[in-house]
Amino acid sequence: MNAIECRDVAVFYGRRAALWGVTCQVPLGCLAAVVGPNGAGKSTFLRAVAGLLPVQRGEIRLFARPIAEVRSRISYMPQRESVDWDFPLTVLDVVLMGRYGRLKLFQRPGRLDYERAWEALRHVGMEQHAHRQLGELSGGQQQRVFLARALAYDADLYLMDEPFAGIDAATEQVLLEVVHELRDAGKTVVVVHHDLQVVASVFEWVMLLNLHMIAAGPVGEVLTAQHLHEAYGGRSALLSEVVQRVALHREVMRRKGA
Length: 258
Ligand SMILES: Nc1ncnc2c1ncn2[C@@H]1O[C@H](COP(=O)(O)OP(=O)(O)OP(=O)(O)O)[C@@H](O)[C@H]1O
Ligand SMILES: [Mg+2]
Prior knowledge:
By secondary structure, this protein is of the alpha/beta class. It has a single domain, classed as Rossmann fold (3-Layer(aba) Sandwich), CATH 3.40.50. It is built from 10 helices and 10 strands. It has a 6-stranded mixed β-sheet, with helices on both faces. The protein has a 4-stranded antiparallel β-sheet with strand order 2-1-4-5. Helix 6 (about 170-185) links the parallel strand 7 (about 155-160) and strand 8. The structure holds adenosine-5'-triphosphate (ATP) and magnesium ion.
């Protein structure tokens, strides 16, 4: 079964299409990246899959069901610039909010919710900041908190919009560990990422987007010189380096398999 299945999807803002004719699949339990230039429609794609934007044409199915039926199994982490970080909430509040999708209306968080929230904070190394206001934290610390919130939710499909943007090496390490753990636990993780080198060495599945889905599939099949040229145009020095890296990665995987 596929975690995500898009068939001929189009999404418009007003009269302008941000996604057009997008067809792709993401297999269950894989670590997938969405890549493409600025304005390519990556955030739009994630929001549409999360059921936060209407799809004007085509169809998106998650776990072989319509989105509305599986909403509670999805965790969505927005791109940082798109969120107002100044609301007066503590770190623990924000992580507990990750549990609210699991609570019934007006039900207060119980012991299990608190346990899960603390566990998630420990997981990302933020428990000592639990009672601070979110607004006082640095950008990278905030990113960790939002990762903890996604973890506390205990979803089956994690959609993360550029969680790797603007973080230090230690936070990047924490993030990488967490996405691998989620994947190892059978979850599907979809991450928007700008660093093609990292994508080539860490992710298994890639969607290369630029209004259209240029290619989607295993890393080695998608990140080819031709596809990258189609998506990004002619910045060839950078791209040929990526292609080399992918070829190396493929060779390593082949040897591992042999
Ligand atoms: N709320 C909106 N209203 C109108 N147009 C929008 C809106 N959000 C995005 N767009 C437009 O849709 C297109 C795709 O935007 P999107 O944010 O999905 O790109 P992206 O691939 O995530 O880019 P980035 O790498 O810069 O985050 C862009 O042309 C953008 O200007
Ligand atoms: Mg974006």
